Here is the input.
Amino acid sequence: MRKRVQIGLNGLLVGAVGLVVWQVLRVREPTYHGKPLSVWVEEYDKNFLSPDNPTRERAKRAICQIGTNALPILLEWAAAKDSVLKKKVMAFAKKQSLVKIRFRSDEYYHARSDAGFSALGPMAKPAVPALIELLNRGDYAVRVAAAYDLMWIGPEAEEAVPVLVRCLSDSNNLVCFRATRCLAHIHMKPELVVPALVQSLGQARVPERETIAAMIAFGVQAKPAVPNLLRLLEDKNSMIWPYAAHALKQIDPQAAAKAGVE
Here is the structure.
């Protein structure tokens, strides 16, 4: 029994060493002022909610100086998916104290990818085709990461709109949520997006408030949603009423006035 346990531990340690070697030998990160991209992204991410923080601004400038050279690494992070072996090794590493090995999960890399694309914004447009490919991946977490990354690119990611519209009916709620928010930020191709938002309004996969916010992003172009918004106004005690009223005023002021929305 002990022998089998020892063999198992040795196997996991070999796997751990293999993963460490892989991390060392993988694509070399671009640098700026002697610091690799991952360091700048981490500094930016840690201070993301403090836009006036000098550290955040310095990190953003550094990432923008690296520019499109950062995209291969950011896309690699967005596509990260922990293998079964890596999950076992990480679980083992937490339980033992003999060898201290630090691993990063796919969630960590997805968050760093999000931060990197946030800093680059429209500069990351060349990554759009690769992010579209990630939206078609089987792993939902990768699809969520890709949708979030496209969101930061904004209108320059117009090419991704048809695939994001399909994501509104994804089997995973979080994918639907991120796709809805992403379409709001891109706010292109209203002839495709608005009907899809109207169809998804009221479905359980995405909160109505998020769908309504996406409609507001299209302004008067979202007029096909007016009948649905009027139906939401029928129940004044509904928690969604204020959001529907605000949307109606933004999208069709005349219809709002006729409905008694001040």
